[in-house]
C-alpha cells in the first residue's frame, strides 16, 4: 500500500536529514516527518550512514543540493565544529554541533535560512552549526524525572561528546557536585579541568562517590546498553544503584536498557533518552522551519516508532 506522504513527493519537495555512523537505529525520521506533516510542509527528513572520514563531503553535498538542514549524531558532533562556516553561540558554548542550518546571503549581505529561497541558484551558501542537545537534556530531566539540577549531586558516566556537553550544561545550572567516570581516566580528568575553569563554584571529582555517599541523579551518556547482552555501564561494587535517587540513560532503544532495569529494581526513578531526542529534534525543526514545533505529535510518533517499530 502506497504511503500517502510518499505519494505527495514532487519536484518541489525539500529535504533535511540526519547523518550518523551507524544510523539504522535512529528514530529521528519518524519524529521529524510527523512534525513536518503536522506543519503542512512539503518537506521530507531522511537518514544517511556517513563515515566520519566523509563527513566534510557529505555536509558540502547537502548544501549544494539545497537541503535545508541536518542533524548530526554519533560520531560527528565534535568533528563538525571545524566543518561549518559559522558557529551559533550554542555550539561555541557547549563545544559540539548536532544541528546544521543551511543559509544563503541576500543582496544586502544578510544570511537567511534556505527555506526563504525558492532555490539556491547563484547565491552564496553557508552552513551554520548549532547545539540543541544541551537544552534538551535539561528539559528532559525536568519533564521526565522532575529533577531540578541546582544544588544536586550527579554521577555522570562517560566523558565523550555527549557526556562533556551534559556535564557542562549541568555545571552551568549550578549543580552542587559532579562525579565524572569514564573508561579513559584522562578524558574524565580533562572534562573536570574544563568545568573547574568555567564553573569554579561547582565541585568536580573524577571517579565514584565515596562509600555511603548518595547522588540525586545518575546519568549514563555512554553507548553501553545498546545491546541487550551488554553489562552495566558502571561498577556496582564501587557504586550501588540504590544510592541514586534517579537514573537517566541517554539510550532510547532499547527503551529499557540493562541499566534502567537494574535501577528500577533498586527503587530508583528512571527515564530513557527519548525525551532528549524529542526536545533536541523539536528545537532543530524550529531552526529550519521558523515555526513552533508540534511537540505532542512528535512525541506520539517517537513512542509508536520505538515501542512498536
Question: Which architecture of the largest domain would the CATH scheme give at its second level?
Answer: 3-Layer(aba) Sandwich
User: What order do the SSEs take from the amino end to the carboxyl end, as H and E?
Assistant: HEHEHEEHEEEHEHEHEEEHEHH
Measured by DSSP, the beta-strand proportion falls in: 15-25%
Query: What profile does the largest beta sheet have?
Result: 7 strands, mixed
Tally of helical runs: 10
How many domains make up the coordinates?
2
In round numbers, the mean pLDDT is 94
CATH class of the largest domain: Alpha Beta
Determine the CATH topology of the largest domain: Rossmann fold
Describe this structure in words.
With 309 residues, the chain is an alpha/beta fold. The chain contains ten helices and 13 strands. The radius of gyration is 20 Å and the shape is globular. α6 links the parallel β8 (153-157) and β9 (177-181). The protein has helices at 4-7, 28-38, 55-64, 89-94, 133-145, 161-172, 185-198, 258-265, 274-289, 295-308; strands at residues 14-20, 43-49, 69-72, 86-87, 99-105, 111-113, 125-130, 153-157, 177-181, 203-206, 215-220, 244-249, 269-272. The chain folds into two domains: 4-131 and 277-308, Leucine Dehydrogenase, chain A, domain 1 (Rossmann fold), CATH 3.40.50; 135-272, NAD(P)-binding Rossmann-like Domain (Rossmann fold), CATH 3.40.50. 35% of the residues lie in helices and 21% in strands. The mean pLDDT is 94.
